[in-house]
Specification:
By secondary structure, the protein is α/β, with parallel strands linked by helices. It has helices spanning about 20-25, 25-30, 40-50, 65-80, 95-110, 125-130, 145-150, 150-160, and strands at about 1-5, 85-90, 115-120, 130-135, 140-145, 170, 175. It contains 8 helices and 7 strands. The longest helix is centred in the middle third of the chain and has 16 residues, at about 95-110.
């Protein structure tokens, strides 16, 4: 299992560099006694390459931007080669480039038969980024393929009727948003 935490839950002053953070993802495969070897280091570097961060491998983690830090934590999860990944708001506070990188990797993981569970609050991107959704509000409101579960009714139930919707309506050769 791989995990990508929320950026806000990490002590960025911890004295470690990017490669060390990614190598931490290998500890589950190594066990308590074994130390990482050349193969583990290469896997870590490969994961950094996938997220576009290999050139920062020796940089201290606190010297990175928020988007770069998020990419490092994504690389740490990827190096585990897990069957299931949990990501807690991986798009929070990242730039557009990092967001595109993350979405691309999510799709690669899906296509490789991996399961990815993402906590996500941006309703505008759900249909674009995901193919399955679960809406929660103390209890499960809806769950299933996005086109069936991500409906106006489900969203109203999840958000207590406090959701504004933009709907395209064609009326006599003009498009109105209301």
């Amino acid at each position: 299992m791989g995990y990508v935490p929320q950026r806000g839950s990490v002590d960025w002053d911890f004295p470690t560099n990017v490669l060390d953070v990614v190598m931490m993802g290998r500890y589950g495969a190594l066990g308590w006694i074994r130390r990482p070897g050349k193969k583990d280091r290469q896997k870590a570097l490969d994961s950094l390459h996938k997220v576009g961060m290999e050139e920062f491998s020796n940089r201290q983690i606190s010297q990175l931007s928020g988007g770069q830090q998020q990419r490092v934590f994504l690389a740490r999860a990827l190096v585990q080669d897990a069957d299931i990944y949990f990501m807690d708001e991986p798009f929070q506070g990242v730039d557009a480039t990092t967001e595109k990188t993350i979405v691309s990797l999510l799709k690669e993981l899906r296509d490789a038969g991996k399961t990815v569970v993402v906590v996500h609050h941006d309703l505008q991107t759900v249909k674009e980024y995901f193919d399955w959704v679960m809406l929660l509000n103390v209890r499960q409101i809806a769950c299933g393929p996005v086109e069936k579960a991500f409906t106006e009714e489900s969203l109203r139930l999840a958000y207590g009727g406090k959701v504004a919707f933009l709907t395209h309506h064609v009326h006599q050769d003009e498009t109105d948003l209301y």
